[in-house]
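subagent[fold] <- orchestrator: predict structure for attached chain, return tokens only, no commentary.
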Amino acid sequence: MDTHLINRYRSTHGAEAYADKYNQTWMRRLSNWREHQIVARALAACGRGGRVLNMPSGAGRFGELLKSQGFSVVGCDISLPMLEETGARWPWPLVEGSAFALPFKDRTFDGLFIMRLMHHINDSNERLTLFREAARLTRNWVLITYADYHTPKNLIRETRARWIKDRKPKITLTREQLEREVRSCGLRLERIYTVSPLFTPLALALLRKA
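subagent[fold] -> orchestrator:
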């Protein structure tokens, strides 16, 4: 992962900025609303109740949805200031930890909720480590977002990146890549929920323990 990004979120200023990020503009608020819609649909498919790891905790943005499904939530993040932002909103147990070496025993959780992390991971070995950790910890399901290569938004961004030197393409996966990688780590892809293909490459994958 990008060390600059990690250091930004590990700072108090970075955590505070992220906590307010989805309130700043109408586009951000619309994105937040649409993401909540998709997450609600996916969580309904997971069933109610059980113990869930919300990692990274991301200032607890999806706390209300997780609560509404009757989950007992544990928040985990590599950033202490981000955990403080989460703790200010939700009375969850909070644990500092890396997604690549999570400090929990095998099969601790009924499900894992991993939002807006994987599109920051360019190294395939790091992705596989993340999937193995998810498979180790879950008894049932994993919800995880990724950037879908084949969305119109991403194809437009790829085209622009060829012409604009400072424009970096997103870190994306095809469905076939995702399916192959999770299968090799003991998970199976059950369903993909697209968020808004014209406006974002973000998609939400529902994985099950193989």
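orchestrator: received. Logging for downstream: Residues 3-209 form a domain with the Rossmann fold fold (CATH 3.40.50.150). The first helix runs from residue 3 to 10.
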